[in-house]
Each structure stands twice: as structure tokens, then as C-alpha cells.
Amino acid sequence: MQDVTDKIRRFTDEVASLAIRAGRSVESVRVMAVTKFHGPWAIEAAYAAGIRVFGESRVQEAIEKRDFFASDVELHLIGNLQRNKAKKAAEIFSSVDSIDRLSVISVLDRYAASLAKRIEIMFEMNVSGEESKHGFSSYDELCEAVELAAGCTSVVPVGLMTMAPYTDDESVIRKTFSGLREIFYRCKRDFPAFDWREISMGMSNDYRIAIEEGSTLLRIGSLFFGDRG
């Protein structure tokens, strides 16, 4: 486990250097440890390395591991949220980063309100247009979702999330990330009432490009913990 902790510390140092090289502040890029499909040892190793943002993709798995997350961490749902899991999601997550349907917004808001809890949300965008990926496919669809959230009391929009195609073609990856950044700034312009601050993009294979294109939150799993169990 110590080897993993040391690896994460070296990575966060690299992220800081990359941010500075891109003309950004060190604090402008955070690292999320994606612990899905990994046991409590991964949570412990990342926490020991200073990570305070964690990502899980399945509600049930997060429930089973919830006691291993310290009280001072942010626990994000980064996988697709089904309506029938919204109640449990509202109970355990501080942020749902994968909002991709209108119906989920209302349901999550209702359960969060019943808990007297405010949950941050990010809207997932399918910038690349790949059929295998979740997310809103147009700005008009996104606007409809944001307008719905504006009428809610307990879900708070804070940003956008996307995944780039898994490819060695850096131009394709860069186009996806720059596309999300452009949509993000349109949202800031068109919906100024919200505190738009998160651009969640970049994973183990493409984080360097993501930092250059403005990511504020990297989602790193296999680079830290190896292949999924």
C-alpha cells in the first residue's frame, strides 16, 4: 500500500508542475481517486497521500464501502445514476457528476430535500458523439436540464463532465476537451446565477491534455491502483 501512496504523491506533484506549465495555478486542478472496483486498501492509500476527493461508479458498491471514507472527503458518483438508486445516492454522495437525463434531476432533488441536504451536480456531455457514451448530446438539451435544476431546491449545478474517446490520436482527445471547455463558458454566460467551477475531464491515459485544456478535476483510477478487480 505504501508504494501506491508514494505513486499518488508523485502524481500530484506532476499535476502541479503541469498546471504551472499551462499557465494555471496549482490549486486550479484537483485529483479524484477513482476507487471503484477496488477495496478499502485503495481508499486508505489515496487518503494517506492527501487525496480528499473520491469517485465511485456504482451506488451499491459505494454503500458497502462508505464506512471506509473519512468524514472530510468528497464522495462523487461518476457512473450512470438510475432513478431507483437516487434515494440511496442522495444519502451517501456529496456530488453526482453524471447527470444525463432530466428525470434524474427531479428525483434526486426530491430525495435530497427529504434529507435536508444539498447535493452538487455536474451535467455529463457526450462531446465526442460516441454512441457508447452517456451524456447530453447538444447544448439545447443541456440548457433544458440546467433550467430544470434552476427550479429545484436541493441540487446545485457546479459544472460539466465528459469522457474523451480512448485513442492515441491526441487531436481527437484535445477536440473533445476543448469542446467541453467551450460549453462550460457558454453555461457561465447563459446561467450566471450558478457557481460554475468544475470541468471534470481527464483520466489515467489523457490527463496531461486535460490539464492543458482547462480541466479542474481529474478522475484517476488505474494509474494509481492497477487494473480493476
From TrEMBL:
Gene3D superfamilies per the UniProt record, alphabetical? Alanine racemase (3.20.20.10)
Using the record's annotation, list all stretches that form the Alanine racemase N-terminal domain. Answer: 27-228
User: Which UniProt keywords are listed?
Assistant: Pyridoxal phosphate
Q: Pfam family example for this protein? A: Ala_racemase_N
Q: Which domain of life is it from?
A: Bacteria
N6-(pyridoxal phosphate)lysine occurs at which residues? K36
The record's listing under InterPro entries reads: Ala_racemase_N (IPR001608), PLP-binding_barrel (IPR029066), PyrdxlP_homeostasis (IPR011078)
SUPFAM superfamilies for this protein: PLP-binding barrel
The similarity comment for this entry is: Belongs to the pyridoxal phosphate-binding protein YggS/PROSC family.
Q: Which PANTHER family match?
A: PROLINE SYNTHETASE CO-TRANSCRIBED BACTERIAL HOMOLOG PROTEIN, PYRIDOXAL PHOSPHATE HOMEOSTASIS PROTEIN
Q: What does this protein do?
A: Pyridoxal 5'-phosphate (PLP)-binding protein, which is involved in PLP homeostasis.
The name this protein carries in UniProt is: Pyridoxal phosphate homeostasis protein
User: Could you tell me which species this protein originates from?
Assistant: Rarispira pelagica
